Amino acid sequence: MTSPLAFITGASSGIGQALAQHYFLQGWDLALPARRPAELAAWCRAQGWPEARWRVYGADVAHVDSIVTAGQACLAAQGVPDVVIANAGISVGMDSAVLEDIDVMARTLAVNNTGMAATFHPFIGPMRERGRGALVGVASVAAIRGLPGHGAYCASKAGVVAYCESLRGELRGSGVRVVTIAPGYIDTPLTRANRYAMPFLMPADRFAAQAARAIARGVSYRVIPWQMGVVAKLLRVLPNPLFDALLAGKPRKARAGHTGPQ
Questions:
Q1: CATH tag, 5-247
Q2: Annotated catalytic sites, by residue?
């Protein structure tokens, strides 16, 4: 018997790295695309992981050909994954009144949305032919409502939810499951830069364990931690004037190259 295989983008840090650790410790083999493959490979070796159980592929999720090639290389070298987790993403504040921030939005969508579809692309046919597998899109509770100064990220994560829902319908009956995981605030290098309160902040390893359980169960959509799911639902039904007033004057996500208040 061979070990199950997980293909995970964004495993160089944060949520992706926690997911890689979790799956490895559960006996899975790993396929890990990265923009800096040497650094990720060095990290894997530092964990004491046998090299027969993991492989790193050089790839940039922002470029379709790059991540598709990595997926094809995985198929050739390791076979069809049991789980593909499109986790790679970027989160940068933006101001639409500033022209260069439109480029920030374009790159955010290229990574968080087009990059997700390109990550899944090489595996859909082989998984469908095999009759099983899971394609996992990592969204965010930021998909629920637009946050001031965070338009690119919120739009991209709302797009992740809608895209995965569409793909789930397309693959219905094929045996291939599509799972959407929407993290709340998870303790990672990315969130440590936030300048606002982060309720129900969860350690990355706990998030990874809960996400893996949801993926194994084949749930279609799961917010982690569950408390943020309740908060998200309440925000969704909040009338617009109250929602706008609630966020008025709150600190915003830092724009690219900016660290001061905005």
A1: 3.40.50.720
A2: 153
